[in-house]
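Whiteboard transcription, Tuesday session. T.W. wrote the structure tokens on the left side:
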């Protein structure tokens, strides 16, 4: 665990948890989009969502537009999952370009909660 910087763990886990929440929210499949962590500096990481479909399916844009709701759903999903540190239901993604390394459920959950806004009821 501690061989990875905390912010890498956080952003990578957060990205995976958002992907896991996709089918629950904007009805996209996690197979439509992938998530990649890019190292931009000594301790500077950026997470990128990108469409897998040729020319783009619009899923990445949809994620960007509904990030607070997605983060909310992802936090719910992670909290209600019975695993201790992350499983294929809430964290592990089969298409991860980083081989599912540097992931931790609890750290990603912190970011999900920070980004989440409760559903606005009308
Ligand atoms: Zn789980
Ligand atoms: Zn990954």
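and on the right, the sequence the group agreed on:
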């Amino acid at each position: 665990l501690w061989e990875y910087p905390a912010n890498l763990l956080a952003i990578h886990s957060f990205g995976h948890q958002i992907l896991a929440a996709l089918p629950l929210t904007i009805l996209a499949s996690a197979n439509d989009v992938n998530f990649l962590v890019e190292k931009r500096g000594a301790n500077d990481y950026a997470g990128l969502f990108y469409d897998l479909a040729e020319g783009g399916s619009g899923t990445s844009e949809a994620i960007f537009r509904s990030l607070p709701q997605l983060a909310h759903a992802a936090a719910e999903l992670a909290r209600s999952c019975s695993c201790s540190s992350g499983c294929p239901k809430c964290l592990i993604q089969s298409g991860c370009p980083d081989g599912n390394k540097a992931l931790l459920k609890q750290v990603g959950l912190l970011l999900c909660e920070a980004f989440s806004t409760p559903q606005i009821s009308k």
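Someone added at the bottom: The pocket of zinc ion (ligand 2) is lined by residues 12, 16, 35, 93, 96, 98 (CB under 6 Å).
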